Amino acid sequence: MIVIGDLSLPRRACYPVVGAVLGTFTALCGLAALARGDVLGLRRHARQERHRLVRWFHAAAVAELPDRDPAGYVLLRALHAVAGGVVLIAAGAAALGYFGWALELTLVHRIPLMTSAVSLAVGAVGLYLCRQFALALGHGDAATAMRYLGDDGTQSRLRELERTRAGVIGAVDDERRRIERTLHDGVQQRTVTLALQLGRVRRVLQRQNATVLADELDHAVDEATRLIADLREVAWRIYPSVLDERGLEAALRDLPAHTTMRLWLDLRIDREPPAAIAAAAYFVVAEAVTNATKHSGAEEISVSVTQLPDRVVTVVRDEGIGGADPEGGGLTGLRRRVAALDGAFEVHSPAGGPTTVTAELPCAS
Question: What is the largest distance, in Å, between two alpha-carbon atoms of the chain?
Fold first, then answer.
């Protein structure tokens, strides 16, 4: 639908006419690209035409169309745009000339006042009809764009599924953040308070020479301390807060503190990726490192994360015993997370090693 917004009267009158006249010439350019078989040129032409419709006709509905069939759009539009444009230009020139002639005669008092009023009214009606005809041409262009450049039913459904899938990934990460904050701000703080209280009781009992009970409280304090460490580890594995606070590179550099194996990092991250891509890259590396620590028997792990213009590539490699099951629960979860972002995930783990886990995540610049 075309809506002319809150513009001044002259601009409201002129916008459709200018847009339609420009469309006449751009239709010829589109036919030239079609005749050359220039596929990229047709797509570029379709984008320019959508911008023209938004700029001059305020047809916001065509702004984000995927340019499904630019050749069909160019061909069908040319049938009415060229002929309509020629008619519009001829009729507009005639109406404008008649209105100007009537106005000139009126100003020099060459015709009676009544005749002048009628002549000016006829010229104004002619100009108005030209404007309405131009607006109709714009409506036709927009309808053609929606038909040929927009999605069909299946593509619309696929796009909706893509948006829904990305939304699910975002919701899962949001829930991870919520659980991490709950553990950090709630359970962990209460455990710290318990450890402090046990420590105070122990010191009181030590002053009263209650040695046996003090020893038991020592054990309780040690258990509380270990519980705090476990809670911090669980919170980190659910969702590291540093990922939101300082970004992907800082979160990856924090990984060696959470593994007993030697970890070699090669990070080439020039700019922070989108949040969903950063989270996916981080969890691919973290889960692969965790799997290698538990099952590979290797002494060290190498991690490479490289940001290219159109994607983020993560590679985790260990020289362990190999034989990792690509269909195992952890790796399957990573594959699904990467696939949800239209990425590629691969596990190469022959018997005897090495094991290499590679993920490529799309990240347009």
Answer: 124
Q: The domain containing residue 86 runs over which residues?
A: 9-150
pLDDT tens per residue across span 191-215: 666 667 677 766 766 666 666 566 6
- Closest Cα to residue 228, out of 180, 197, 188? 188
The reply to whether 226 and 100 lie within a common domain is no
Exposure class string for 145-170: b at 16+ Cβ within 10 A, else e? bbebbbeeeeeeeeeeeeeeeeeebe
Residue 160 lies in a domain: no
How far apart (Å, rounded) are the C-alpha atoms in residues 187 and 184?
6
Task: Respond yes or no on whether the N-terminal peptide bond of residue 354 is cis (omega within 30° of 0).
Answer: yes
Instruction: State whether residue 287 is helix, strand or coil.
Output: helix
Instruction: For 105-162, write each residue's pLDDT tens digit.
Output: 777 777 777 777 887 888 888 888 888 899 899 988 988 888 888 766 555 555 556 6
- Please tell me whether residues 139 and 23 are part of one structural domain: yes
